[in-house]
Amino acid sequence: MNEKELAIEVAKNLLKIKAVFLKPNDPFTWASGIKSPIYCDNRLTLSYPDVRKVVEQGLADTIKKYYPDVEVIEGTSTAGIAHAAMVAEILGLPMGYVRGGAKDHGRGNQIEGIVPEGKKVVVVEDLISTAGSSLEVVDVLKEAGANVLGIVSIFTYGLKKGVERLAAANCENHSLSNFETLVNVAAQEKYISESDIKKVLKFQSNPSDPSWMEA
C-alpha cells in the first residue's frame, strides 16, 4: 500500500484497538496540564499481532525508502524500544536504545547496546507531540558521534511546536499516520461526530488555548 493508504490503515487500527481515544466533550488532562480531546498510547499495538505486523513493517519500509543507508536502529526509552527491536530484526541491523538519562550505577550508560560512533542511525519513536524528548535522544546520539539521519514514528499530532522544533534541529520525522488522517477516519467510522471535528482541529492548531472546547 502507498503512504496515504498506510496512514489510513494505521489510523483505523489505532482506533479499533483503543490505542487512541477521542473525547472532545470530556477531555483528557496531559501531564503538562493541557486539556486534550485526544489520548494516544501506541504501546497497545504490541498486544495485537495483526496490528503490530502492519506497524513494524510500515516502519521498516519507511526506513528503507527514506534512509536506505542506515546502519543502526536506535529506540527511544521506553515506548520506542520494542518497536526498534522488531524493525531492526526485519532490516537485519544492529539495535540499541537511549535512556532518558545516564544510569547512576554500573557503567553509567545512557546509550544501551553498541555506541554508534561514526554510524548512520535512524531513531524509532512511537509518538511525536512537541518532539522535545525525541530530539533529546537525537542530541545524545550526536554527542556520541553518530550520524543521525532522522526519526520514524507511528503517529504524529502535527503540533506546531513539534514541527518547528524538528525544523530548527534540521531533523526529519516520517510518521506512519497523523492527526488529520485519524480525525477524518474517526468521523467516517462514527467514533466522533462531524461537529466535533472543528473542536479537535482547533486544539491541534494551539493546544495551550482552552477555547477549543467552546468551538
Description of the molecule:
Helix 3 links the parallel strand 5 and strand 6. The N and C termini lie far apart (36 Å). The protein is α/β, with parallel strands linked by helices. The radius of gyration is 17 Å and the shape is globular.
Span between N and C termini?
36 Å
**Structural class per helix/strand content?**
alpha/beta
Gross morphology: globular
Portion in strands: 15-25%
How many beta strands in the DSSP annotation? 10
Q: Give the SSE order as H and E letters.
A: HEEEEHEHEEEHEHEHH
Q: What ranges have pLDDT less than 50 throughout 5 or more consecutive residues?
A: 103-107
For the biggest β-sheet, the strand order reads 7-6-5-8-9-10
| CA gyration radius, whole angstroms | 17 Å
- Assembly type: single chain
Write the layout of secondary structure elements.
Blueprint: H1 3-16, E1 20-22, E2 28-29, E3 35-36, E4 38-40, H2 49-66, E5 72-76, H3 81-91, E6 95-98, E7 111-112, E8 120-128, H4 132-143, E9 147-156, H5 160-168, E10 173-178, H6 179-188, H7 197-205
Parallel strand pairs: 5-6, 5-8, 8-9, 9-10
Antiparallel strand pairs: 1-4, 2-3, 6-7
Helix pairs in contact: 1-2, 1-6, 2-3, 6-7
Concise overview:
This protein is of the alpha/beta class.
